[in-house]
């Protein structure tokens, strides 16, 4: 009986690759756009609402293409009240054609965070959030699209401090247009 240590590597290539065909994925990358910031943005007595963390520059897309979106952002929340729980959502939105009308990239585009903490100590929460999406836009050649990361602070209804990119931590967006 033969074992793999006795088979020459050249013979393995044919055995391991014969009959394989491409069955999915995408073709070529048409363009890559990136946006990055490390500038801290602070909100004192931050109310429960949506906060835009980072917005891409407009990209001009091709008909029939898809956008693969990778993003991450850093946030830090502080609330000195006892018996508080931090809760919120993170998601991607898109704007088409420069009309300042934003909509979610996908129907179920939110990620959530939840941290319950009770006691007499200062409550704070820090997190580096990944937000990714796959968006088939259905637009014609030459249409411009922007993508943004949105942080929705939900609970408590107001926090003492909400900081994005605290201490120079970075937030990023990378958008790949693929055919």
Give the structure's gist in a few sentences.
By secondary structure, the protein is mainly beta. Helices cover 5% and strands 57% of the residues. It is elongated.
* Rg for CA atoms: 22 Å
How does the major sheet shape up?
6 strands, antiparallel
Q: Secondary-structure element sequence?
A: HEEEEEEEEEEEE
The fraction of residues assigned to DSSP E strands is over 45%
Instruction: Say what oligomer this is.
Output: single chain
What's the total count of β strands?
Answer: 12
Task: Label the overall shape.
Answer: elongated
The stretches of 5 or more residues where confidence is low (pLDDT under 50) are 9-18
Number of helices: 1
Average pLDDT reading: 79
| Class derived from helix and strand content | mainly beta
Distance between the termini: 47 Å
Q: What level of helicity do the residues show?
A: under 10%
Quick tags:
179 residues; mainly beta; six-stranded antiparallel β-sheet; 12 strands; elongated
What is this structure's SSE topology?
Elements: H1 9-17, E1 29-37, E2 41-47, E3 50-55, E4 59-60, E5 66-79, E6 84-96, E7 102-104, E8 111-117, E9 123-136, E10 144-155, E11 158-164, E12 171-178
